[in-house]
Every structure is written in C-alpha cells, then in structure tokens.
Amino acid sequence: MAVTCGIDWAEDHHDVALVDEGAQLLSKARITDDAAGLQDLLTLLAAHGDSPDDPVPIAIETSRGLLVSCLRATGRKVYAINPMAVARYRDRHSVSRKKSDHQDAVVLANILRTDRELHRPMPADSDQVTAIAVLARAQQDAVWERTRIHNRLRSHLREYYPSILEAFTDKREGLIRREARAILTDAPTPSEAARLSPRQLKAALQRAGRQRNIIAEAGRLHEVFRRTWLHQPAAAETAMGRQTAALIAQLNAVCQACEDLARGTEAPRHRGTEAPRHRGTLPRTPRRGDRHELPRPEHPHRSPHPRGDRR
User: Fold this and answer.
1) Of 59, 155, 190, 311, which shows the fewest CB atoms inside 10 Å?
2) pTM confidence score
3) What is the number of structural domains in the chain?
4) pLDDT surpassing 50 at residue 275
C-alpha cells in the first residue's frame, strides 16, 4: 500500500496527515517542533509501513528548518511544495478561502499521491553544499537589505543634500561606495560638507581605503561641495542630518555583513582543494644509500670514483 505524508509547517508545531493510494486518511497528528516531535513523527510513519527499503515520502511547504534537515538526514524523499501551489490544490477540493492547518496537511499528502511526478524532491546535498547554500541565501538577503537602505538614503538625501548626489552620481555603486559613506559620516549635512577642507576630504578618502588619485579626488569633491546649492532651514537640515547618520550606520552594518558573508561563501567552496601542507620542515631530498632507493647500475665507461678520474 502506497502511503504519502503531508506536513503543514509552523513555528512551534506541525500538523501531519497520512493518506493511502485511495485518498483515504489513515492518520493525523500535531507534533511539536523539537526532538520529541520528530520522534512522534517517525513513530507514526513506522506504524504505517515506513521502512529503510521503502520510506514514506513527505511533502512540506518549506525547504528550511531543523525538521526538514532531520527528515532529509533519514534518507527519505522530501518535497518542498510552494505555498501558492498548495493554495491552488486546496481550491480543487473546497471553495472556501478559510485556511485549516489539518486540511493543508491533507492537501500536501494528496499532492504526492496524485502529482508526485510533477514535483522534484530536494536533492541529497552534502554538508558542504548545504553550508554554501545557507551562506549564499544569507548573502542574498543582506544584498536585498543593502539595496533597500540605499534607496531610502538616496530618497532622503534628495530632500536636502543635492551636492552629495552630484558628487557620486557617476561613480560605480553610488552612495554604497566607502568614500561616500565616509564623507556622509563626517558631514551628514551639506553645510558641514561645504566646510570640509581638502586635507579633511583626503583623510576621509584614505580612511575609506582609496589608494589612487587621492589628492585629485579630494579637490574635485571640495569644488562640488563649495558650489552654490539650495538649502533647507538650519533646524530642518540638522534634523535631516541626524536621520542620515542613522541610515549611514545601518548601511555600514549591512555592507560589512555583505562582505563577511561573501568571504564566508567562498571559504567552504575552496576548502579541501588546497595543496597539502607539510608540517615542520620540508622532506629531505632522497640520497644514495637510503633504504627505499635502489642502487644505480654502474655504467661500463664511467670511472668508479664518484667524481671521476682527476689524475
């Protein structure tokens, strides 16, 4: 008898449903999100024919979490079904828009019963691949967060700080550049930027890590900031500068997170591919007379003296 399992995932508990090949509900349960809940689930599966040779396939609405990782470690096929697809399958059996955790678990089990060949099980990735996937997903989230904060900062600066936008409008990465963030940290308002001397701008560029054309870039920025620009009233400009300082702090943090996660993503990828390293001193060059080396045959025309006949 073919049995399929559906799990409606939640943060602190999960609803489980098992159906047979005739769409008959065999069992339902609610398990906790801990080791005891996993043991209850495995016991329930074993009671309905689960075995190492024929494990019960499971459909669940997420590909993340401890429950999914533990289920994949058992060697069974786990199908991550998109929640939107589950909602479309639910409409086949009920016109009501009301959501039921138990009913969703039944729908997930029936998806594998009727359309298993249309869905792909999660691959049996190695620990290294899983680690890379976790870091890559975190890096992508950090990049999205960086873009969101950058857009907020740019929209905010358009209201009172046109000189900083003009200074970095043609620069790659724009306000995300370290130079732009360093200057905004030192001068969150256009009035403060106009008072920066070329020496102070040079120091800010060096602190940001710039190494080439520092003097020329400092002069260009000084000229841009000293132009005639429209200004907000002093009190409003000061308040906006404080908001800019808060956004810059957030942007600096998320930019650092992006860099750290990028390095972390590369580290597992290259782990195990480095050339073997010798501990201590390098091995001695093999010499004549070593036990593992066979003696060389004597050449018929070569002098028996090791350095030849020098008479």
Assistant:
1) 311
2) 0.64
3) 2
4) no
